[in-house]
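Office hours follow-up: a student asked to see two folded examples consecutively, so here they are.
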Amino acid sequence: MSIPESSLHTLEFDAIRDRLAHYTAFSASRELALSLTPATDLAEVRRRQALTAEARLLLEEWPEVSIGGARDVRRAVQHAARGGILDGATLREIAATLQSAALLRQRLSRLDPRFPHLIDLGNTLPALPQVVEAIERAIGDDGQVLDSASPTLARLRHEVRVAFNRLHERLQSMIHSSALANALQEPIVTVRNGRYVIPVKASHRREVRGLVHDQSGSGATLYIEPMAVVELNNRWRELQSAEAEEVQRILSAISEQVGAAASTIISAVTTLAALDLAFALARYAIATRSIAPEIVEWRPDDPPPAEPPFRLTRARHPLLPAETVVPIDLWLGGEFSILLITGPNTGGKTVALKTAGLLALMAQAGMQIPADQPSRLPVFQHIFADIGDEQSIEQSLSTFSSHMANIIRVLQTLDAAQQAPPAPDEQGLFDYRRPAALVLFDELGAGTDPVEGAALARAIIGRLLELGVLAIATTHYAELKAFAYTTPGVQNASVEFDVETLAPTYRLSIGIPGRSNALAIAARLGLDPALIEQARSFIDRKEAQVEDLLAGIQRERNAAAAALQRAEELRADAEKYRDRLAAEQQAFAAEREAALAAARQEIEAELREARQQLRRLREEFRSVNISRQWLEEAEKRLAAAAEQSQQAAEKLRQKHAPAAPPPPAERPLQVGDTVHVASIGLNGEIVAIDEEDGTATVQVGGFRMTVKLSELKRTKAQASDERRYTPPERSVNLPSAPDVSMTFDMRGWRAAEVSDRLDRYLNDAYLAGLHQVRLIHGKGTGALRQVVRDVLATHPLVASFSSGGRDGGEGVTIATLIER
């Protein structure tokens, strides 16, 4: 099943093929382009579209891809297969074609999985390195057989050169000798009948013995081969003949090798032509800003689709100038299958008709279409077009008769196609659905009496509805506009016309029938208003009502369009305000976060200052003998620092966290509680609890101690109620300094363990009187080293620190403690 050639001609598909041929690279692919026809099989159409899409993607990524220096050498190869001898230039073209095939095969084989069809085509390209090598070894770039083609040829050519030199030397000596100076017409050597001769005056013929080969037109000069060079001439000619025979033998041998591989070489040219056609389709698509349409499966007997199977978005006729063409939106199927386009002449009805048909043909031929997404097309088994004036003088057919003959032929073909039994597919299955068809009728029912023409048009449209085809028709008849309005499956459309400028806009509006605008145009041109009114009175009342109805629909459509535009403007304003509010809210949130961060930093700075003050007080408190008066003063300063720390913490809680519920009246001691140690009369913080032993580890100043839980009492929350320690009358002795190593190994620790354990070690080292300690943390990722040095940077007992240098490098940090 194929699209009739008449439809291709009517829809100007020939012009598309001509333009496509300009993008091909050699004659074989040009022939394919000029003979390209639309396919009617769904799988084949999808394969062609996929191949074009892959070729376009490849050219967009690697524009230099091509078939190289390939030539259509099929006729020459067939001649060699029949025993013919090819000349050197033709053999070089064959070698270049085979090299191009091998290079393209290699390039396509490296493509990624996005190019399956190109890879498959590339894999079919043959490789004949032995043929290419034989040609390149024997034939030069200029097509001449090389001396290296055979040892015999090299020897013969050497002998030819030697014989030629001897012959010329002998002749040169003769023409310059004094004995023949008067006999020669002029002292030159020339060629006659393939033999070297000298020009001798006819009057001095007897002075030069030899063979006369020619004479001048006047007879005054004879061209004589002197007897002294006859043998030299003979020898030179014999060697030339032997050389020519050897050259023919070499060309014959290579031609025989080419003929033996004729089928493979022809297959290579065919595949190269197919690939070049795909590249030409891709280049044409890029040049026309085309897109790959969605190819859908649709038949008239299928359930109603959710989306129209035939949809063109901003479609452009590819043969019209890009700067003047007006895009159209058009769809068929679903709610209606027949579109009736009305409007004034030269308004673009026929262009819309041809655009729909031509783009359908292009898509089924594997071409991308000049439109926008979304665009989708089914695969039509039949496409018929009756467009234009086909009046025939020879057949004595009027315009109406010509159109009617075409319409009858279309209807008969569709009837026969639907009644014909289906053929089995590749799997042997039968598809009993009616074939998909697209019918395009221009000026349906025109060329005869309007009443009869409109009646015939209605009957034809009704028959198309029964056949289930997709159809587009143009008309002027008002009766058909009303018929389309009231008939399910038929939809009105119109091409717009600007009455003010008396020019068509070429825009297609589906759902609104067009008006003829004849009276409006006449009035705009200045016809007497009285004549306009008189003409209006002659119009049939029903037709006038239809025209008035159309005008009302157009006004309502314009009002709806204006309302829609206003709604779009309001929506755009709303989105703008929404975006502005969202930006302001985001800015406010960022500002709030910045303020909270600043507040946190401020509170943390106050807390750090309070902690540093506490550390200084503890260090002063650690002297071995403390007087009662100094101890009381230190206790007051400790209490004031604790109160300041408590106030800072309370400020942070009030500013950044909801108020916590009051703790229960009595609860067990927990890690983190501030307690009073009765045995030493000091306050500390619980860092660990052993429930089995009934003991707790308490951090008191810079040292830790283990005491029984019974000796601990939680301090009250309010500073005013806090129980203060009253030092005894005697002096206080702190625990003796521990025995601490100067080296502290932290390798393998987690970062979270460093702060507390390193703080305890530094306190112990300071109490032990160490001036400098060596902290081993290892190199690793550097995270542990950074944590250690962050602790050292803020620790009150550390005066300075540095890397280990020779003593461990960056894996060790040396910390120097403050003096006691």
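And the second, which I mentioned at the end of office hours:
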Amino acid sequence: MVRFLLARPIAVFMTFLALMVFSFIVLRTLPISLLPPIDVPQIVVKVNYPNASPEAIEQNVLRTIREGLITLNGLEEMDSKAGSEVGTIRLTFDYSTQMELAYIDVNEKIDRITNSLPEGLARPEVIRINTSDIPVARVQVIPKEGIDEIEVSQLAENVLKKRIEQLPGVSLVDINGKKERIITVEPNEAAIRALGMTQQQLISAIQAGNSELPGVSVKDGQFRYYLRLATRVDTPSDIESLPVLAPSGAIVPLGRLAKVSYQAQEMLGYHLFGDREALVITVHKQAAAKMNELMPELKKALELFKTDYPQVDFELTQDQSNLLNAAISNLQTSLLFGGLFAFGVLFLFMKDYRLPIIIGVSLPSSLLISFLVFYFFDISINIISLSGLALGIGMLIDNSIIVLDNITRKRESGLSLFEACVAGVNEVMSALVSSVLTTLSVFVPLVFLSGISGALFFDQAVAVAAILSVSLAVAFILLPMLYFLFFSKNKRKEDGSEGAFFSRILALYEKGYRLVFGKRKLAMVFFSLLIPLGLGLSYFLDSEGLPQIEKLDATLEIDWNEPISAVENRDRVIALMNAMNGRYEKAEADVGVRQFLLFDGENSIQQSLLYFLFNSLEDKAMMTQDLIDFLSKNYPEANYKIGDAPNAFDQLFSSTLPYYEVRWKDLTSKEPVPEEKMDPWLSQFPVSDWERGPGLQKEASVVFTLRADRLATYGISVDQVQEQLSRLFGTYTITDIRRFGEITPIRLKESEARFEDLLRTTQLAASDSAFYTLGEFVDYRYEDHYKYVTADKGGIYQSVLVTASEPDAHNTDYIRWGAERNLGVSMVGQYFKDKENIQQLIGILLVSVLLLYFILAAQFESFIQPLIVVLTLPLGIAGAFLVILVAGASLNVMSAIGLVVMLGIMVNDAILKIDTINRLRKEYVESPEVSAKEALEMAIHRAGQIRLKPILMTSITTILALIPIIFSSGLGADLQRPLVYSVIGGLTIGTLTALYFVPLAYWFFVSKKKLTEA
């Protein structure tokens, strides 16, 4: 094939040129995003039920929804949590479930059970989780001093949101912190009682004044007119002018009995920028959009906003495109330094400027053509796929160096230029194909990991497969063609000299070779001990998910653990901001219930999430301690958590499951176990290292009890008392004004007085027209109450979070503890998920090793020789562990990727060396003067000399290309540094040992007799 293609260099060149042009066109159409558009198999149902207790939400709403959703196809887990005024149900599906259909199915079932839910309850929100839902940036909208915040909310909702949605690539715009205008009616109780009237008469007058005549029309000859009541109210003055009939027969304007005015609706949550109330607009990207084009457009739009709306300040925060820019920058750095160092190393070893130029052409062409595979597999340019390309680039350079070195060697042996190109490629073709297949045998099985990990590895595996496959085509077709064209005019006979630099290196190698093979058994014992000792270094290494990144931002999650209002929550956060003022560059906070449509977390009035951006790591460390001191001193009851601000990776991999949770259900009552029984039981729990789960957390509450005897005595109905209580303490909506899609509620104004005072002062009319105070019919008491009601598929449960180092060591004790109290006990948590993933990963790695072994066995036609290649891998891993330990790094996702890169290069070297030894043995054995043992020694020695140059060149180019990252700073360098340590450690120590270990193992393990089968 190579001979056929080389005979037509112009056709080959034009074909590659056409492919590159087509690839460039495709590259411009590929979406650029932060992460692959992965469907997370979860759906969240959110319920807002104002003024409802956790028990009421569980009994009246969540239980009904759970029963309606239990038959969903593919449903694995269902967890619900009812809190004050809010409730959530999280549905987790099997990963093979088509989430588009599941989302439709959930909405259909919600629609069916809507009639079974309490009257007036807003339809539950159904939120589907997707990686595209992670916002790419947040736009802060801050009203200036003296500007009406409600008007700014309307500006954000009606103007800013629509203008941002019109930007190319924007899929959704979400807002938090909006304020809405309502009309409040504040009755004048003294005036109402003086006229012998009740609040109900005011309410009835307002409802009558806002009534409609739906579908009523009159006929006037040949015309028909639809009627509209002209008495409908629009403004507070219209309401105040409504007539109210007094018992005496007098007509009284409503304005004499109540004060009516526009006010802001009571907020369940706020957004703060610094210590100022603001709105935040989160911008979400379309899956097919290019982030590097979207962000400049968004920034340009913000500059226009600043000009068009001077009454508002705008800020862009939490720009997630920094991660993508870091990945692209790392790829560019790898290409730049890889090319430069490859040029330098090749020039140093080969002394010919044309060889580096050939690699300089092949490297970007391979990368560009790889994007065609992206297009056909519908893969976007994202951090995962870019990391796959970065992995493949190192191996791509290796293939190019090996082919060029072999062609040069064939030419130096006396072959013509054409024959040298053909023979040089054919000789290493099978070995290079095997090395690529062995690398893919490690990556491709990872696609079958369950969950998000497998979905992420799909993009990476396709990227690695693409660039390696293309690199093979380039190395076998384009490189020899370029070599032939570049050297066709060179009539000079190659002298075959290695050059002074490589001659010195070769001399050093020879010294080491003589030393090792002079004491073969001792050397083999040394290598045999080196492998377990090196792998044992893993016990001294810390392990984590992602590497520690020097972030200048942090988050503070606070649960005040007190039944405070959203206003008090806001005031506390502002006080905290003011106490820390000047120590941060930017700060924002989501206080209380968040209004985001896509927010799938826990909504609670008593919780806040604060975000801080600092100027330096020193400021961050100092302020973190100040925050702890401030909260501990002023709010000792508060629960808080301080950590680095999560990026898109953290948000994707974060789990809502606790690490290890012991759950139980009361098998008798099917309800939460009462506090008075639960607390003594918990004191006898089998382990002491535990925390209360959500279903056991307590908060202070007030319990009202109606005095039925007095109600009966005075002829007052229970409904009358309940109606009065809802007017006093609830959000009592009289009616709504609806105009062109805009709804303005008319509500009774809630009193700011303490509830005890209201009970003493509020009057109730009895059947004898006498008035009595509400407090005579209502008793109240304070008591601690469960803060949340939690449930799953099986019903209501309570739980503790076990924090012991070996949480599953007492499983039988947990079950026995529950059985003694008639409780059904089960254990759940991330601990079991991790255990399952580790078992799955071990299985997949075993499959990978088997695949690698089978491929090599087919390549070498031997069952022993593949084991030599496999045994070189621990040497590289040991070298990587040593450098990671010395550098103070950890084992994480990036260092694991570095191990795979390094092992891919080492496998290539070992395969090529064994392939060369096998080929030379066949040549030497044909000579009658050479014995079998001599042929083996000559083949091992000569193969080491031949393969030394490409092994050193591939290792040195890879190491030198990565060294600048160690001394760089920033997010990209922090992410890539563990990868660099793995590669450098493996290639320096692993390659040096493998140079001698492969021939030594070959000598010991491969038969010295069956030379014809070698």
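Two things to take away from it. The domain at 661-737+746-829 is CATH 3.30.2090.10 (Multidrug efflux transporter AcrB TolC docking domain; DN and DC subdomains). Residues 90 and 909 are 50 Å apart (CA to CA).
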